[in-house]
Amino acid sequence: MSTFLHSVTQQIRRRWFYGLISLIFAIGVGVATPRPGQALSWVDLLFNGIQYVQLSNMSDRQEIELGGQINQQIVNNEFRLSRNSRVNNYVNDIGQRLAPASDRPNIPYHFQVVSDNQINAFATMGGYVYVTTGLIKEASNEAELAGVIGHEIGHIAGRHAVNQLRDATLAQGIAGALGVEQDVLVNLGVELALRLPASRGDEYNADERGFNNLGRAGYAQAGLVTFMQKLVGRGSTPTILSTHPAASDRVARLQTMLDSSASASANSGLDAAAYRTRINSL
Ligand SMILES: [Zn+2]
Predict the structure, then answer these.
(1) Per-domain residue ranges for the chain?
(2) Residue 74 pLDDT > 50, yes or no?
(3) Exactly one of 63, 65, 138, 152 is catalytic; which is it?
(4) Which site among 38, 76, 127, 212 is 20 to 30 Å from 251 CA-CA?
(5) Which of helix, strand or coil describes residue 110?
């Protein structure tokens, strides 16, 4: 039994003692909908471990476990991961250089390359970051790629996905007295990571965190700015901008930050030729 399941079971047991009546009522009004073909009584629900998650006070450990399940679904059902170990290691090295200098250095991070020509990057809760081969090829240097990765770490550090999940479950009325069934959350988490646009505020926040993260890791902060400018300047809208709104506003804000940055001396990652060599096996 995982520690997470254990803690949830304890939570359910506590509720059992605190108020069986309210529990039966909660299940009775449809908080827990049994899957087709599975007739579950409330006794089954209590002792056979349908997992519920309380989004309002999720611990790091719970977030990491939920993120791991969302990641499983993404890599099993949504995308093909690149088998290019050279490029995978390179992207991981960049990510692992940024993570300790991020706003949330105390959780493990996983950086994965998705085999896809679309220009895209995304993240989910608990430390999972993805960049496509299309995006890696679009970047002109390591600082640009690091900028995108830093932005995605910024979403994780800001707990944006957890907050989005909480808001989505409240809006859809699927958060009940017990919390939300874990399977429901995993599916919603996949949708949020891949298809639903983040709010403008979350984007600004992730840009700011990513920008500062770049400087603290010694990377040229201009990388995030020039990459965003390049995306905005393209004729067709790259995939990454459909889930990341307000692109031209973001460029303007980043440019202002760059003009007054205290980390202006950070200049690592600007060698375009070295970058091409690192990724030439793509
Ligand atoms: Zn973003």
Answers:
(1) 3-60+162-193, 82-159+196-279
(2) yes
(3) 152
(4) 127
(5) strand
